[in-house]
Amino acid sequence: MPQLAIFASGTGSNAQTIINHFKGSKTVTVSLIVSNRADSGVLEIAEAEEIPYAIIDKDEFKDEEVMMALLEYHKVDMVVLAGFLWLIPSYLVAAYPNRIINIHPALLPAYGGKGMYGNKVHEAVKNAGDAESGITIHHVNENFDEGEIIFQARCTIAVTDTPDDIRKKVQALEQEHYPQVIANLLAKAK
Predict the structure, then answer these.
(1) Contact of 81 with 102, CB cutoff 8 Å
(2) Residues 32/5, Cβ–Cβ less than 8 Å
(3) pLDDT tens for residues 6-39?
(4) How many whole angstroms separate alpha carbon 18 and alpha carbon 5?
(5) What integer is the mean pLDDT of 165-169?
(6) Boundaries of domain holding 92
(7) DSSP secondary structure letters along 101-116
(8) pLDDT value of position 104
(9) Residue 7 backbone dihedrals phi, psi, to 5 degrees
(10) CATH code (residue 15)
């Protein structure tokens, strides 16, 4: 049975959606939550869902032996980024080829790269006057938001939409599509 690790830095709304999607599944288990912030909401979710978790600092994250031991101990087959803000080290990309995926709150290649996350993305979309935004789910490589695109979904933006309105539309797309894309990728990998 494939084991997922979810890496998250924030509140964990996407992590919760993924956990809910696979809860009771006979084919997929969320076996580990990893966060780089001791105060992140995703850790409360991990505790409530009784999923093992790890809080890591930059030195641990850069240490191949530490991270690989953690992932191997939990028998992780795929790493899912859900609002994780650190660049994935090349040793992890090499250890999990095409098995680390990320969701980005815009239509890549637009509004991607270092520092483009969360409301910064929605503010940039609004300031550009774009008529649409959306989500991009992509494989992770050694660069921020440059991995092969797996899936995109779009939403329209009204002229009167605020960055917060855009965020809500994009989050609805994330929650609708991310768990299913993960399930589809795991099904293909069998």
Answers:
(1) yes
(2) yes
(3) 999 999 999 999 999 999 898 899 999 999 999 9
(4) 11
(5) 98
(6) 3-189
(7) EEEESS-TTTT-STT-
(8) 97
(9) -100, 125
(10) 3.40.50.170
The answer to whether the pTM exceeds 0.85 is yes
| Confidence tier at 132 by pLDDT (50, 70, 90) | very high
Q: How far apart are CA 116 and CA 2, in angstroms?
A: 31
**% helix, strand, coil for the chain, step of 5:** 40, 20, 40
Structural domain total, the chain: 1
Select which of 21, 74, 104, 138 is catalytic. Answer: 104
Report CA Rg, the chain.
16
* Distance in angstroms (rounded) separating the CA atoms of residues 100 and 160: 36
Q: What is the dihedral of CA 149, 150, 155, 159, to 10 degrees?
A: -10
Q: What is the DSSP letter of 25?
A: -
User: In this structure, are residues 104 and 138 in contact, taking their beta carbons and an 8 Å threshold?
Assistant: yes
Would you call 138 a catalytic residue per the annotation?
Answer: no
pLDDT (tens digit per residue) in 43-69: 999 999 999 999 999 999 999 999 999
Query: What average pLDDT does range 160-188 have in this prediction?
Result: 96
Cβ(137)–Cβ(181) below 8 Å: yes
Beta bridge partners of 74: none
For 59, the token pair is 């030195």
Cα separation, 176 vs 65, in Å, equals 36
- CB neighbourhood size of 18 (10 A): 24
